[in-house]
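Bug #77: duplicate submission created two jobs. Keeping one. Sequence:
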Amino acid sequence: MQLSRRQVLRRRRGVVFTAAGALLAAGFYLPMTLLAPLGSVAASEQLDTVPAATAAAIDWPTQGASAIGAVGFDGLLGLSGSEKAVPMASISKIVTALVVLDKHPLDLGDAGPEIEFSATDVAIRESYLAVNGKTEPVTAGMTLTQRQVMDVMLLESANNYAESLATWAYGSVEEFVPIANAWLARNGMESTSITEPTGMSARNVSTAADLVTLGELALRNPVVEAIVGTPSEALPVVGDIENSNNLLGIDGIRGIKTGTLDEAGACLLFAADFTVGDTTETLVGAVLGGSDHRSLNLEVRELLADAVAGFHNVVLAEAGEDFGSYTTAWGQTSRLVAAESANVVVWSNAQVESSIEADELRLGARGDDVGVATFSVGDRTIRVPLELASPLDDPGPWWRLTNPSALF
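Kept job's structure:
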């Protein structure tokens, strides 16, 4: 049957409109699919538990009270014996040094102001000689710098120099004592109190735990740290002085203060440096109430050896280690790897907590920073950046055109 002219025209218009519609649809579809952003993909995380190290085994001193801590580690590492406050003898002089420096600070290498000794200071020395207290000579009119007086007080443990220094700084022992006790409380040593600046009084008391705190404060002060680590020194008027700590330089010990008193026994506040892996750590310990310094020193060395053996270097991540991967809708995969190596020193069997935060990605270049692995031990946090091991590239036009549902 022959079509009429009108039917032919209608059919032609339909073809034109269909073609135009197809072209219009293609003009819309092609740019949308070729230029549309890709859907993002989340990382498949892979985080192994960091195994706990072996628990420390400490052979504590058999007498008195002991405690150990380490610089940068939260709280005490261990404690043994009585937790009551007991006489601390000449460890009191560390309190005196820090409280004096609180009012008259010195920079490392500074001599400080000159202190002139008087007949009163001569009488102070005579009062300590009368009770068999450790002293060093003074004469009326002689002068030493603040740093030199502190050297004699801490190295030789001279009681008369401790009292003269406190009196110079605060006017009198009576004025010094409440200020010192307020300083102790302010720094968290609530079980520690003093009645005079030397330690000759059995009423100057502390606990081993508090003294670990005191030791860490002493190490934070560069002047006190330098003095307590000095083996000997030659001073004008006084002459050669020697550090009273016979363990100085042994097993990494670098101070801090000895103490001896009938009511206190043999006491020692000490610090020692040691190496774990490629890291240097500092242990701070205190022992109160030993029978004598010879046996106390042996027990401290054993305690120190056990404590050092209780530290472990734990590898958290090796550069390039897998922490997960990304897999795209078009089948491309890139590993999520550590950008750098990291380790941490832990005490005993402390548990390492870990977590991963990784970005969602569409595309990425090799080496892009895309997340972080976080490791926590006590109050310490170590963060390791994570990166792409290989690129995540655009899938290309053909995949885009044939997988439009993955684009929007």
